[in-house]
Recover the amino acids of this structure.
């Protein structure tokens, strides 16, 4: 009797081997095994391109719309604020789409293939407002294209991209490593944009006197869109979705206390809102992203109208981004000595001091002092941002252990919504205040200065509003959040969960 493998098995094994040879991902299918550096860096590369474009939209779109398309900042900001309502809903829709996707590339990677080109095209169109359109038609065009970029295309890229971490590996260490690498590449994207974007505008400009023209923005955006397409394909080619079914690790271990029970949306939301730790973190996420967009957009206007040179945005923002990047490599060492909550609090505290110091010393017009203050902001942002995902997970676990309700999906959706709301409202409020201050880009074309009220508004929004908001969050964290370091271990012990 023959005992060798059947032909169909041999053919299947041969096909799998050929597929492995064509793939540049780590050469194994074990979801619990370590990944190779090529796959780790390949995943991070995807975040570089996508977030570079996202950073350009957040930082430079407003000044393009006011100084090239000649649109009113107040009306533009209202359109953006309204758009964020649809943007928040699209997260839930795309998440369900990813869950229900079945393809040869898996659940998430296929969406990077499907959506990277539409994202690039829609971004190009967003930064190409037709000059011959009537003013009312321009606003309609911007509203439609902004929603196409953010609500449809960017969401359809970012939700699958973030989901890839859970689909590539089930190894807890590798998931944390991939998350950290993604943040590093995201920050690198911001550094590159800060350093090169304005210089590229000058290089491609159709005028030797100004980079505020359509050709400069179109060609510069084309370069970054091509980079995004390439890095998205790298992320697909160098990664593999090994986890076919992704129940929680706690549920796999049979720990129903941690896995939680399914409940209605309303019941789950009620459980979360009774959890002060989750509520404070949602508020903190909103504030931090509100502040990020304020200093991103505000820095552009600060450089242009206070320093008189938009190229100064390079050192202003890179002082923040480089410090943020460096401190991410230190966080694992800090976690050996400090709890995640203290690292988060220290981060928010450094941001608060950085904004206060910049405001108090801005009258000195000392670039070295300003760089030091922005470095402090960056260190604070890196500490708080680098530890935020872990703390959100801890706060959700508190809810599950208290109530027995599985709140992972809704809890993380709330965090994502807070970030988008912070970015959207921050961008909208900045534009509304700028418009109310009397800002008029047509004064630049006529060679006239902006009114003093506009200069004061830019200084106030770049420094003092972020300072006050960070200070409020810092107080809330110190007074109400610190007890999580005591309560969470007690809850784990009560449910027989060993500390890892």
């Amino acid at each position: 009797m023959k005992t060798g493998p059947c032909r169909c098995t041999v053919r299947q094994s041969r096909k799998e081997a050929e597929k492995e040879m064509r793939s540049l991902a780590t050469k194994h299918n074990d979801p619990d095994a370590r990944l190779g550096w090529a796959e780790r860096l390949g995943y991070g590369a995807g975040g570089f391109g996508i977030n570079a474009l996202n950073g350009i939209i957040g930082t430079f779109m407003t000044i393009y719309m006011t100084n090239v398309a000649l649109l009113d900042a107040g009306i533009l900001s209202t359109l953006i604020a309204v758009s964020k309502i649809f943007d928040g809903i699209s997260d839930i829709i795309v998440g369900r789409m990813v869950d229900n996707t079945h393809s040869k590339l898996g659940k998430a990677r296929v969406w990077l293939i499907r959506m990277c080109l539409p994202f690039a095209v829609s971004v190009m169109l967003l930064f190409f407002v037709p000059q011959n359109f009537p003013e009312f038609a321009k606003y309609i065009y911007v509203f439609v294209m902004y929603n196409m970029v953010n609500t449809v295309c960017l969401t359809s890229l970012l939700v699958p991209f973030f989901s890839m971490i859970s689909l590539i590996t089930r190894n807890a260490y590798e998931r944390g490593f991939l998350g950290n690498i993604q943040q590093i590449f995201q920050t690198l994207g911001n550094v590159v944009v800060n350093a090169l974007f304005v210089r590229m505008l000058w290089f491609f400009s159709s005028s030797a006197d100004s980079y505020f023209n359509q050709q400069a923005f179109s060609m510069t955006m084309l370069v970054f869109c091509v980079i995004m397409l390439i890095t998205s394909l790298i992320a697909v080619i160098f990664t593999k979705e090994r986890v076919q079914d992704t129940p929680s690790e706690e549920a796999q271990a049979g720990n129903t206390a941690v896995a939680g029970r399914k409940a209605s949306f309303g019941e789950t939301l009620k459980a979360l809102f009774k959890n002060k730790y989750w509520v404070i973190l949602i508020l903190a996420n909103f504030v931090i992203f509100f502040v990020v967009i304020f200093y991103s957009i505000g820095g552009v206007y600060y450089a242009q109208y206070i320093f008189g040179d938009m190229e100064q945005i390079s050192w202003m923002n890179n002082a923040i981004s480089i410090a943020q990047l460096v401190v991410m490599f230190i966080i694992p060492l800090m976690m050996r000595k400090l709890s995640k909550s203290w690292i988060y609090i220290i981060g928010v505290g450094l941001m608060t001091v950085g904004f206060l110091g910049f405001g108090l010393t801005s009258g000195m017009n000392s670039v070295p002092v300003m760089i030091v203050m922005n470095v402090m902001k960056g260190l604070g942002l890196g500490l708080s941002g680098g530890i935020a995902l872990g703390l959100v997970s801890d706060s959700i676990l508190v809810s599950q252990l208290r109530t027995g309700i599985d709140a992972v999906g809704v809890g993380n959706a709330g965090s994502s919504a807070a970030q988008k709301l912070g970015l959207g409202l921050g961008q909208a409020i900045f534009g509304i205040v700028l418009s109310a201050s009397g800002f008029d880009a047509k004064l630049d074309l006529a060679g006239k200065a902006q009114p003093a009220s506009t200069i004061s508004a830019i200084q106030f929004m770049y420094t003092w509003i972020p300072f006050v908001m960070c200070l409020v969050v810092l107080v809330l964290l110190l007074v109400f959040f610190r007890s999580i370091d005591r309560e969470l271990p007690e809850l784990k012990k009560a449910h027989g969960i060993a500390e890892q």
